[in-house]
Design a protein that fits this description.
The protein has 82 residues and is mainly alpha-helical. It has helices at residues 2-11, 28-35, 37-70. It starts with a helix and ends in a 12-residue tail after the last helix. 0% of the residues are buried.
Amino acid sequence: MVPLATLILGSLMKVPGLFDVPQPFTSEHYLATLKDHYALDAIKNTLIVSLAAATLGMALYSLISYVVVRTHFRAGPVSWGF
């Protein structure tokens, strides 16, 4: 949790790690990124790919789990190393 908080805190600072500057915190970096056309396209593509991967993964593993639960094997119980 601390590394994530440090990353967010550093991204909100004018100069990361320097606290003795006047008004060390700013949101200019985020505002500049959100105004950039290429950054918005990258964020949009990331959301599309991640949602598609999550949806396809859920569908695939739902199908696999259905087959595993509904199929009866005659080979006997499987030993998981216990």
